[in-house]
Design brief:
400 residues, alpha/beta, Aspartate Aminotransferase, domain 2, Aspartate Aminotransferase, domain 1, seven-stranded mixed beta sheet, 13 helices, 42% helix, globular
Length: 400
Amino acid sequence: MRDQFILDPEVHFLNHGSFGACPRPVFEEYQRWQVELERQPVEFLGRRLDGLMDEARQAVAAYVNAAADDVVFIPNATTGVNIVARSLALKPGDEILASNLEYGACSRAWQVMAEKAGASYVEQPVTLPVTTAERVVEEIWRGVTPRTRVLYLSHITSGTALRLPIEELCRRARAAGLLSVIDGAHAPGQIPVDLAAIGADIYAGNCHKWLCAPKGTGFLHVRPEHQAWMESMIISWGWVEGSPTHQATTPFVSHNQWQGTRDYAGYLTVPAAIAFQAEHDWPAVRVRCHTLAREAQQRILALSALPPLSPDPAPDGWPWFAQMVAIPLPPVDLVQLKQRLYDEDRIEVPLVAEPGLPLIRVSVQAYNSTADIDALVSALERLLPELALPGGDRRRGSDG
């Protein structure tokens, strides 16, 4: 599979989780759409785009088991979270409940909007290492108060790479009358995503990460009863009745599909990314990648004798991680370690301190092999003693 990707063959790329990597056939389809656009821009944008976008939306909606009219394309999951946070009419005293494992950029979006409204963004602690899904559900739900209005959680957390039991939490939120908002940045493509089964009111996902679509492609799913108050980041012709891009029967799509003159080729390529994974038996790829991720965790933990962030296997059978795993490190200079891993060993891998723990987050995708894990373990065996710190390094990484 390595030959299917454009990645630098000299680099051990173990950081698919940050920005993804696009397979060569999918990237070629992306470029084909760009040429189509430039060949006749007025015809493409003015006459063809709406129909093409509808077809692409139908493909991604089917992929996540949702109705096409409840899904719109957005550049990334962070944009989706911003749309929701900016659209929601928060009141003084309202609380947005989240875990303390959420992605910093999205947490900041909620914090800014909460501060403007006199509301609060509440980070409920999750005990690490995690043990059972039931315990995590109870720990998070313990943060619900009479003032809680929104439950906001990641499907798979960014820094700790843990799959949260969102299905049960969304069920409880619905029963309690809370709005459930899920950040699915790392889920589509890495694990099967069934939005009907998850039951979230709002779900923002990325296509450019684990689904391997071009950069800047994601989707926002909003249940019909919440679409009326949802405002797009850009007000354009989709808001104007009688314009070619206005769709009276589906205002949610109409308000979000046309965002002015821009390159829409990435969105139109998402069906090709879905097809690429189907053609290459992606369920089998996921199994192989998970096996390699487990091997990486076991070998790195053997260097430090530290416990994992989650039990493997879990006593309740909960799948805490899939193709991406965050592995604790001993106290070490994370900044120097990351730099030297790349400069000396050509290993691209993120190191973070979250929440306050030194972690190395290893992503395994179809193009990775045991040789990549061998290189990482060998480098860590050499560098961890050299860069050891008495109290650890709490500086946070910035990879998504």
